[in-house]
Amino acid sequence: MTTRVSVRPKLLLWALDRSATTPELLRKKLPKLPSWLSGELSPTLKQLEDFAKATNTPIGYLFLPEPPTEDVPIPDFRTVAPEYRDRPSPDLLDTIYAMQQRQAWLREERLEFGAGPFDFVGSAGLKDNPDAVGQEMRRAVGFEEGWAAKVRTWQEAVSELRRTIENLGVMAVINGVVGNNTHRKLDVREFRGFALCDSYAPLIFVNGADAKSAQMFTLAHELAHIWLGQKGEGLSGFEFLTPAGGDVESFCDRAAAEFLIPERELRARWGEVCHSSKPFEVIARMFKVSPIVAGRRAMDLRLVDREAFFEFYDVYTKHERVRMKGKGGGDFYKNQNTRVGELFAIHVMRAALEGRLGFKEAYDLTGLRGGAFQEYGRRLGFNLP
After folding, report:
1. What is the 3-state secondary structure (H, E, C) of 157-202?
2. Whether this model's pTM surpasses 0.90
């Protein structure tokens, strides 16, 4: 006799809505779903597990008497459209939870070995000059004037910035999917990044589904959140790199702009580029940022008027949407350098090798399983069993 489990149809409907899935999309996998939704039939436990997996829903939620209210577990500074703000997606929530788990583990690891706190975390306040904070951030990562012009490509610039941030002790993760699941792509319209502030294990996450030039800005923007500390911890999302509203986001916006395009450098170069047919693109190549960031910076410094910037903005963003379609892929193990991050991976692998951490927990923390964990470890110089 087949044993079936009691589940309220409204929980199933909630899970479908939460994951932006319809019964029609699951028809092939779960042909009996309509009868579950109508209450005519109950699923077996295996079928319910399949439903939970298909909708990215923790199965325990489906046994609750009422659908739970899910809030973003960190402060929300986003200025995105209501459909992306009112209810966080399972992809966003699972990403935040995974990063919080990594942060908690690394914090305990560092405390166990007697490491001290990082003094730059929370070293700034909203009453400080954000331009001065941006300059301090540059000094901290060791960027000299003109560094970006010496880097050939966007990818190299993003990699160099991420590497220097990790050298400070900040976990810097860039990922466009949930873990390594390429079927669960993160939506840049929902969020661009977030910062988890902790004096012992600060973490930055950047949505890797964004353009490389946009990732540069988000990395710098989230680093400014780390400089603000707990008062700056939170989720960032702003349409086409133009944050608006809220003291924290405005502060981080200005600090990031000075970090990436110092006012003194831009003013010194403006005479060379202002007569170009595409001045914002020229600046963008010099500083390895998005032309939108370049144009916004020029407007904020009153090098161009608002009308000129927004005329460019409207045209460029339409083309940007087209260019971003269909991008993705790459070498799996090279992707782990950004999806896991060398800083975190090295700590985990060293703990696993020394027997202080079980391999199952190591797999869970990194999102890598079996042979993939060992192979990535070998590429980082660890001879894992």
Report:
1. HHHHHHHHHHHHCCEEEEECEECCEEEEECCCCCCCEEEECCCCCC
2. no
Residue type, 2: T
DSSP calls for 61-107? GGGSSSPPP---SS-B-----HHHHSS--HHHHHHHHHHHHHHHHHH
Asked if 158 and 290 touch (Cβ cutoff 8 Å), the reply is no
CATH class of the domain defined by 9-63? mainly alpha
DSSP at 313: H
Element (H, E) at 349: helix 342-353
d(CA 282, CA 280): 5
pLDDT tens per residue across span 9-41: 999 999 998 888 888 888 889 999 999 998 899
| Torsion, Cα of 154, 159, 165, 166 (10° steps) | 170
SS3 label, residue 5: coil
Return the closest-CA partner of residue 185 out of 49, 56, 318.
56
Dist. CA 90–CA 202, nearest whole Å: 23
**Residue 280 token pair:** 């914002």
Q: Where are the chain's structural domains?
A: 9-63, 82-324, 332-379
By DSSP bridging, strand 203-207 and strand 171-175 are parallel
| C-alpha to C-alpha distances, 75 to 71, 85, 109, 135, nearest whole angstrom | 10, 12, 26, 26
pLDDT of the residue at 240: 46
In the structure encoding, which two tokens stand for residue 99, read together? 């990063």
Question: CA 174, CA 189: separation in Å to the nearest integer?
Answer: 16
What is the phi/psi pair of residue 241, to 5°? Answer: 65, 35
pLDDT above 90: residue 226:
yes
Residue 235's φ and ψ, nearest 5 degrees, are: -100, 135
Please state the φ and ψ torsions of residue 199, each to the nearest 5 degrees: -65, -20
